[in-house]
From TrEMBL:
InterPro entries: ARM-like (IPR011989), ARM-type_fold (IPR016024), CND1/NCAPD3 (IPR026971), Cnd1_C (IPR032682). Pfam families: Cnd1. Residues 100-260 form the Condensin complex subunit 1 C-terminal domain. Residues 322-400 are annotated as: Disordered. It comes from Photinus pyralis (Common eastern firefly). It is found in: Nucleus. This is Condensin complex subunit 1 C-terminal domain-containing protein. Residues 346-363 have a biased composition (Basic residues). Keywords: Cell cycle, Cell division, DNA condensation, Mitosis, Nucleus. GO terms for biological process: cell division; meiotic chromosome condensation; mitotic chromosome condensation. One of its GO terms (cellular component) is condensin complex. GO terms for molecular function: histone binding.
Length: 400
């Protein structure tokens, strides 16, 4: 029995080795012979490449589409051939005027990524760029391919995924729905969404073509997919330091808005209080201040006394940023972002001085012996001249 078992193991091992040898032989043929210059298929390669390169000469949608598909299938055979023509493929992807050609390239690039991941992966940022293509069909096909690769773990989740998040507010309803479905599925995969959320935010903030309202809409949707308390606590620690990285009012407002989206427990509020030094100066911005006041108000409505106490502590820290009067009332108020000067203020002084000049002329020209009427007139002139300083003192006292 032992001899028969040993013989069976040896035959199995020999069979596995034979399979490996056959596989190596096939791979070697594909790599070095199938599309080489000496093979039948290889002799057609220069013709295919020339048609792809000279799109102005062979300017036909069907010809271009057929040529690029043939080229991509050749590339799937040999890593050497693939490496040689990657630049050409992505140049065509950017410059071609035919949407069908772009879609075909995206579809076959997903196959190439599975076949030769080390060769294709450095080019994936160029694939993400097609999510901004003017053609809806190209955007939809690109999103579908990228989402499929990411969910199958064929493509690493990187900061470029912010382009997919931007599709949540795309003008095309189909793409908006696809984007939301993708991120819902991604949120179910371990910590994928949690890990990339700060990077998504940073990339979206740097996108000048995305307005603030759409940015907030995207972040509100993504934060709504984070349902673990531990992740919420850590997001506080990851977002607070972002205040130190910028002086831009817009970015500070958006960071504060994201912090206001977090569902706070005790640990989360403690992390926010401990990070007070990061956002202390940013509180002088009215929108940032309002976001933190919202966090405080939510904490005060909690049924847990511990959270209420922490919310009170946070409120006290926020209040400490501003001056207080003798009654303990807040005097300083957050500042709005700088705004252009109003033209009305430029004409206040001439209006105040004009009556004074007229009063002086009247006084010099007046030669009346009635001292009482002259005294009354002087009093009126004095009051008129001092009117502006009195208004300024009233405003100062209100602000104090």
């Amino acid at each position: 029995a032992d001899d028969s078992t040993a013989a069976g193991d040896e035959s199995t091992l020999e069979g596995a080795q034979a399979d490996d040898t056959d596989a190596e032989f096939i791979l070697n043929v594909l790599e070095n012979n199938t599309v080489s210059k000496t093979s039948g298929l290889g002799k057609l390669a220069p013709i295919i490449v020339r048609v792809c390169q000279q799109s102005d000469v062979y300017d036909d949608e069907r010809v271009q589409g057929t040529a690029i598909i043939a080229l991509l299938r050749y590339m799937a055979v040999s890593s050497k051939f693939c490496q040689q023509h990657m630049q050409l493929v992505f140049t065509i992807l950017e410059r071609t005027k035919y949407p069908i050609v772009k879609s075909n390239i995206m579809i076959h690039c997903s196959d190439l990524l599975e076949r030769f991941p080390n060769i294709v992966e450095p080019w994936t940022p160029r694939m993400y760029e097609r999510l901004s293509d003017p053609c809806v069909d190209v955007r939809v096909s690109t999103f579908f391919i990228l989402a499929n690769l990411i969910l199958r773990d064929m493509l690493r989740v990187q900061g470029h995924i912010s382009e997919m998040a931007r599709c949540i507010v795309d003008e095309e309803e189909q793409l908006r729905d696809m984007s939301k479905t993708f991120f819902i599925q991604l949120s179910h995969k371990a910590n994928n969404l949690y890990n990339i959320l700060p990077d998504i935010f940073s990339h979206l903030c740097d996108n000048e073509n995305l307005d603030e309202a759409n940015l907030k809409h995207i972040m509100k949707f993504l934060f709504g997919l984070i349902d673990k308390n531990k992740q919420m606590e850590n997001l506080v620690e990851r977002f607070c330091p972002k205040f130190r990285l910028t002086d831009d009012n817009r970015k500070c407002r958006n960071i504060a808005y994201c912090l206001s989206l977090i569902q706070y427990n005790e640990k989360g509020l403690r992390n926010l209080i401990e990070g007070f030094g990061f956002y202390k100066n940013a509180l002088l911005n009215e929108d940032v201040y309002s976001a933190f006041q919202q966090i405080v108000a939510t904490g005060n409505r909690s049924t847990k006394n511990e959270i209420k106490a922490l919310a009170t502590e946070l409120e006290q820290k926020i209040s400490s940023v501003f001056d207080v009067d003798e009654n303990g009332q807040q005097v300083g108020t957050p500042n709005r972002p700088p705004r252009p000067a109003q033209p009305k203020s430029a004409f206040k002084k001439p209006k105040g001085k004009a009556p004074l000049k007229r009063a002086k002329k009247k006084k010099v020209a007046s030669d009346s012996d009635d001292s009482d009427s002259e005294g009354k007139e002087n009093v009126r002139q004095t009051r008129r001249a001092r009117a502006p300083p009195r208004v300024i003192r009233d405003e100062d006292s209100d602000s104090d």
